[in-house]
Amino acid sequence: MIIVKDLSKHFGDTKAVNNVNLEVKKGELFGLLGPNGSGKTTMIKMLTGQIKPTAGEIFVHGVNVLEDPLRVKELVGIIPEQETPPSFLTAEEYLYFVAKIRKLEDFEEKCEWWFSYLDFAGQRDVLCKDLSRGTRQKLMLAQAFLHEPELVIIDEPLINLDPLMQRKVKDFLKDYAGKGGTVFISTHILDIAREICSSMGIIYKGNLVFSGSMDDPAIGERPLEDFFLELVN
Amino acid sequence: MFELFNSMMKEEWRMHSSFFGNRGFALFPLVIAAISMLFSLSMIIFGRIISQAEVLLGLHYLLLFMGSMVGGFGLLGREVMNRRFGQASLMAYSSRTLPISERIIFTNFVVKDVIYYFFLYVLPFTTGFVAGALLIDLNYPFITLLTTLFLAFCTGLSFVFLLSTIYANLGKKGLFLLLLIPVVFLVFFQGTGFNRLYVLPPLVLYTNPSAEIFIIALALVILPSVISLIFLKVDYPQSQKHYRNQFKEAVERLGFYGYSHFMVKDYLDFSRSEGGAGKVVFSFLVPVILVWFFLPQLLKVVPGLDILVVFAVVVGMMASSMYNWLVEYDMFSSYAFLPLTVPDVLRSKLNSYSVLNVIPLAVVLIATIYAGRLYDIVHIVLLFVAVSLYVVSVTVYLTGLNTTFSLYSAGTFASYVLVIGPVVLGMIFLAQLNFHFVLASVALIPVAFFVLKRSFIKWSSWEV
């Protein structure tokens, strides 16, 4: 579903991502782990065609991201790190707006389902600028799944949500992957990866220092935190 | 205390230079000086219709207005700044996280604004004006003028700080109080032929300097700020508003049009943001009406000038400010993860711009009919459409989706003036030779489309 070959992104002298190779298969729930500033968000922006790499190739859904980034955005559901829905639309209007951009029919029931599932129907008529960060995060989750994509790429999926909502979203993502969907998440919260991911990569100072399944022998019986700290120290 | 002031100065500089680049922003005072110099040089022509007293009146009220704009940004610019930086990231809000009182922060903020904008606006403006005047043998005492213009600027700034404090404390009741101001203003000036405008203390200080008037002028600066400090309240009254789904209804009605969802979104942005439809009145219709009343004065200087042609050109240029309204509250990062490109968003804004142009078009039509020139309507409308399209295409090319801030860059602003100025002046000149030459403006339309095409290519490589 995602193939990354020799991918690099440099900002001046800073090597934000350095010669990364990676493959994520269909049905996987892949977690890209790394400390703050390690290159996770830059990776996601390149995977989704928001920024161009300095070198390398990316194929998402079989589409060359460099050649056709728009097609990738059509196929994939994307949740950026910063939740920035337009200020002066209400939550409901924003979902309708996204549906129109994605040229969706019969989306109203799906919107209702998301309002109900993530428990924010009460805020549907509130302007996005007045929503709490948690509610904006819920809204961004809803917009990413509105077109029922086969692949979803999420930057820090649970960071603004309360424990109850975190549980719901984790259950949803596991269920989604269980039904054949593919999820690529980036996070620096190791417990999330341990709990829901089937495979992971660890990125540190732009280098992918580990890639494999959660049962990889390299991890062994150690807590994920110990394994992670060994790699990044 | 000084550390906070120092940090605020750095914050202000870095905030501006992050938009325009260090060099672009550093050169901005030179642009201000050049504009004010042109302004004073133009007195060679306008000196025949405007007295020196009126020039000084205009200068002081202009600086008063600039001060109000700087002060008003704290009140009206919050949406823009919050959208770009987030409230918590600005030092003005640091009392929430650091052991510093809001009063100390606010005092530093006001002093910082006064000093920062003295160097950014007041000093270059005065220098440019006095230097230009010297070239045409008009002598203004530099230090006196700098002092009185600075006082006028500070009066505007301090007064608007007071208004924002009233608004912060009283909310909607405060708004009623603010609405009373123009009423009081009108009563004050009723039947006086606007002579009372000359009682502005900084202006009186220039014309009839005395210790008493200096104290009054200073008090007008200090008192509103002190009152603002005493009743200081940083958080403005905000209520969470609820809206029914107007987007759905409007898109259903306009469903036949491919860009309907963008246009509806732009309309909702426009009507729900601060100022709402009042923006049309205050930033477009009022200036247009002022232009309409001022233009006949030009006949005294340039006899035979076709006022209607000049009006159509000026309205065409002013119409392009509507593009600025459309992009003001949007950021491409809101769209970057959706199947859209920057050119898609630019096209959607241009569609909305075309619809909004119905307003200036109506103004031009009314003016044409009012002038009894119905037989010239095709020429005038064509001229207006061509100028509006050309100016907006240049705006899009130079500033993309970031118009408000980009035009503060010296280089961008200079390019803007150089690319637009000769063309519109050329159109007016052609019309003087022969009115039918106005039809040459049709050549601007393919040029505008070409510039727009280049803009789409230019901005498509822009990354969030």
> Which architecture of chain A per CATH?
3-Layer(aba) Sandwich
Output the helix-strand order of chain B: HHHHHHHHHHHHHHHHHHHHHH
Unreliable runs of chain B: none
User: What class do helices, strands and sheet pairing of chain A give?
Assistant: alpha/beta
**Can you write the helix and strand succession of chain A as a string?**
EEEHEEHEHHHEHEHEEH
Total count of strands of chain A:
10
**Proportion of beta-strand residues of chain A:** 25-35%
How many separate domains make up the residues of chain A?
Answer: 1
Strand order of the largest sheet of chain A: 6-7-8-3-9-10
User: How widely separated are the two ends of chain B?
Assistant: 37 Å
Largest interface pair: A-B, 33 and 34 residues
The main sheet of chain B comes to: none
Shape of chain A: globular
Major sheet description of chain A: 6 strands, mixed
Structure description:
- The complex is a heterodimer of chains A (233) and B (464).
- Chain A is of the alpha/beta class and 233 residues long.
- Chain A has a single domain, classed as P-loop containing nucleotide triphosphate hydrolases (Rossmann fold, 3-Layer(aba) Sandwich), CATH 3.40.50.300.
- Chain A contains eight helices and ten strands.
- By secondary structure, chain B is mainly alpha-helical.
- Helix content of chain B is 74%, strand content 0%.
- Chain B has 22 helices and no strands.
- Chains A and B meet through helix 2 and helix 3 of A and helix 6, helix 12 and helix 13 of B.
